[in-house]
Amino acid sequence: MTTIDNISLVLVIIGALNWGSIGLFGFDFVAALLGGQMSVLSRIIFTLVGIAGLWSITLLFKEKVPASHDR
Questions:
Q1: Of 65, 71, 49, nearest to 2 (Cα)?
Q2: What percentage of the chain's residues is helix, strand, coil (to nearest 5)?
Q3: Which of 3, 8, 28, 35 has the most Cβ atoms closer than 10 angstroms to its Cβ?
Q4: How confident is the model at residue 24 (pLDDT cuts 50, 70, 90)?
């Protein structure tokens, strides 16, 4: 995996955990930490998570490299 793949995976995980907390507890961690849902920082994070989600779609179509058995 490339660096951008790893970054997008981390952002997607953050987004999934945030949505999980909204679903289970009605609490938006990103908004709480960054000053509300409409603050500039929150909107930037939400946008980056959305872009990372779109990028992660490409991970479904990447060819898998088999692990080497020459150890």
A1: 65
A2: 70, 0, 30
A3: 8
A4: very high
Axis-axis angle for helices 40-59, 3-25 (nearest 10): 120
In a domain, 11, yes or no: yes
The answer to the question of residue 69 being in a domain is no
For residue 10, the enclosing domain spans 3-59
Residue 71 above 70 pLDDT?
no
Tokens found for residue 63: 């060819």
**Number of neighbours of residue 14 by Cβ within 10 angstroms:** 16
Please tell me the distance from the alpha carbon of residue 65 to that of residue 68, in angstroms, as a whole number.
Answer: 9
Say if residues 6 and 50 touch (Cβ distance below 8 Å): no
